[in-house]
Amino acid sequence: MKSGAGRKRKHRQQTPGEITTVRTALRYFLTNHDRILEERAQALMFLGEIEALARSQKRLTDATYRRDAYNVFSEEISQELRMLNLPHRSVYRGEHRVPVYDTRSISIEEIGGEAEGVLMAVVDSTTGLSTDKIVEMCRTIPAVRQAQLDEEVDLSTAIGISSVADLRNIVEE
User: What is the pLDDT of residues 103-115, one digit of tens each?
Assistant: First the structure.
């Protein structure tokens, strides 16, 4: 079990250092898919953080990301997915079982201009890519490569790095 599992997350408003909440950003990404692997949702949210930092030196949300064996992981995002109570099934990816959520019932919430621009840039830059390629985009970020297994990814070192569109170009070379 990941650390922090079992704790309930309260919905909260963003702070001045963030441009939206985990719930709002996650729902935005979910509305762009009929079904989504949790690892894809995690990677899209992380790329949203990178895009926000590249554009405005602000965090997208207050989510904390950890490095796991394959991807980045945020317990806050995982909890939010569970709280949405979406129909899901598990599939095997390699030797691991991962949930695939049916997101057709999700509707978008009102979203602010700066956050919408960041989220749209991530969607535009990842459209047509496999989950593996999106995860690879996350792994090209130095803060992710430098983090040890289950260690928090230090996003403060990601300020001013490439946009998500630039990361896509790197993984498609």
Answer: 999 988 778 789 9
